[in-house]
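Example A, followed by Example B.
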Amino acid sequence: MNKHSLGPALRALRESSGLEAKAVARGAAMSRSKLSKIENGNTAPSVTDVDCILTAIGVSDEVKAEYMAAAREAATEATAWRLIRRLGYSRKQQQVQALESQTTLLRLFQPSLVPGLLQTPEYVRAVFARRRLSEAQLERTIGARLARQSVLYSEGKTFRFVITESVLRWRIVPPLVLVGQLDRLISASRLPNVDIRVIEPSAPQRDFPGHSFSIKDDRIVTIAYARSGEEMRALIGRIRDELLREQETA
């Protein structure tokens, strides 16, 4: 169970108990309208809300423990995002940098953007320009993200990136700027401790990812078939040449 399914799961739990919404709302000391918004996923319930709803339904201790764990996880994530907004994205970049400095092996899959550790300054600007930051905040955030990239040159650290081919073609920057970003990927891939792999859309896969993820140090992950080494660099080079030809004929 995750934060998005918590509300509907509470509704299913209530319905399976045979209790009407107005009875559970009354027992949980909340309005019928609030309970409806929670059950429909329109309002995120607090930990206390979930506790009161479960008590009103009368679930077992085991079920209550499962639902309360999901509620606490959702509350923790929401608090983290409020903290990011308050402190600023530059501070968040500094926190990530501190974590990366303590990581020996970083494995990251990214299906939508070039990984932050591999982004050019222009690409970083394009990513954060959508966050409605002031120019001063934007500059601090760009500087903080670029500062993270020095970890790529640290001894004793290994980086393994897997990205989809669509990342290489996603036009969040003008074509010539994207060419520079592709050159950056090719250059970084030649570092002895950096392994970059690209998943082609035509390659057969057994499953598909729902989101990006990273694995630090001793963990296991199943990844899709991806181009690596010279094959990967050749693929990026072909996309780069396509962009340049497009500019020549524009």
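Example B, a separate protein, is given below in the same form.
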Amino acid sequence: MSYPQPPQGPQQQFQQPMPPGQQPPFAPQPVKKKSKKWPWVVGAIVLLIVIGSVANGGKPADTNTANTGTTATQQPAAQPPAPAKEPAPAAKRTVVYEVTGAGAANSITYVTDGMTSTQQEGNVKLPWSKTFELPAGEALQMVSIFAQAGNGTPEITAKITVDGKVVKEGKSSGQFAVVNINDNIGSLGK
């Protein structure tokens, strides 16, 4: 006598559990993604252009200097080089910050480079001044001073002088009074 056998198909097959990280032999293998090469090619081209520019001093390559078959005897006589001129010293602007009052200032903060660098001094006996130089000919060149009066100083005054000419001044009165003045002394500020 024969017993009916259950149909043997893919849905009836039971698999043994596989250890983690191992796949059955008939499982599809993951497709490896190819790395993109075009960003590397573009990067290499840009790098070569930058290196070529730096090596040539930022000037375009002179294609006329290629070997034309001429010799030194066929070229015109070389003229002696012109005496080297020393570059004119960069023009400087003299900036003077002044803070005055009777007593002391809690703090004085001022721009030192014509842009963003500042210096701060605390508990300063008045009168106070600071002189420094900035290069001339800059489009944007800020001069700025911020001062706060100390305890017992009823009034505080600040002044900015550039090349002997007062460009800004301000005054403030009262307990712990604050004075803040600034100006663009560059070519855009005129």
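On Example B: The longest strand covers residues 92-101.
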